[in-house]
Amino acid sequence: MSAACNVEFSYLYRDAGNFKQYGHVVFSNHSNATLKAVTDQLSAALIDGFFFEASAARVPDLFFDKFPFNPDLDHSWHEFHAIFFTDKDVDDAHRRDVSTFLEQMKLNG
Question: N or C, which end of the chain is more exposed by having fewer CB within 10 Å?
Answer without folding.
Answer: N
